[in-house]
Amino acid sequence: xxxxxxxxLTFQTNDGPVHALKDVNLEIEAGDFVSFIGPSGCGKTTxxxxxxxxxxxxxxxxxxxxxxxxxxxxxxxxxxxxxxAGLYPWRTIGGNIRLPLEIMGVPRAExxxxxxxxxxxxxxxxxxxxxxxxxxxxxxxxxxxxxxxxFDADILLMDEPFGALDEIVRDHLxxxxxxxxxxxxxxxxxxxxxxPEAVYLSTKIVVMSPRPGRISDVIDSPLPRERPLExxxxxxxxxxxxxxxxxxxxxxxxV
Length: 255
Ligand SMILES: Nc1ncnc2c1ncn2[C@@H]1O[C@H](COP(=O)(O)OP(=O)(O)OP(=O)(O)O)[C@@H](O)[C@H]1O
Description:
The chain is an alpha/beta fold. It is 38% helix and 25% strand. The structure holds adenosine-5'-triphosphate (ATP).
């Protein structure tokens, strides 16, 4: 579904070149839930932005759905969820979710049907006519996920969508996101700073290290797809979390 080969990205800045990504190789299969974890500045967001055609690599290549990120963007192959919900305050929740559909010229009746369906998927049925400021932070983030789902892309790119939320809300959204992934069969690329979040959600965990940003470990999760929150106390879960922590530590020691 997504393939990176010898991917390099160097930013030219006033202080000299910044090697955000160096020789990054990765294969993401259809239906995978892949988390990217690593310290600040290791290139997680940059990698996601390359997949989304928001940054141009300086070397190597990325294929999304077998085509270039630009072609994938034009074909609306992915939805993107940002760190902040980024909803327009003057539009209702329904109006925000409808926006990409309006831009795409989807007929009005179909727009209404899709808004209804994605609001149900994120458990916000009944909130269509509310304004963003009438919703909690977690609900706003769910609305922004609904917006990314509205045009039914196969891939969801999520950049630390729950980073600003408290732990209880985050736990709940993690559970909901897993259910949503299970129901829709989407391929998800998810950036996080949290080891438990990465281990809980993912089928594959990509550990990255900084300067230059590269992949230090790729872990295929042995956990079953069915994951109650309590699984986080199981020995299997703790073993994966331990390996992620070791990977992060190793990445730090050779900086
Ligand atoms: N547009 C840009 N111009 C110059 N340097 C940039 C640009 N975007 C990112 N960088 C640099 O590239 C490196 C990787 O940044 P990136 O945002 O991808 O890291 P990250 O792992 O997502 O960090 P965080 O976890 O803090 O969000 C950093 O050193 C950053 O300063």
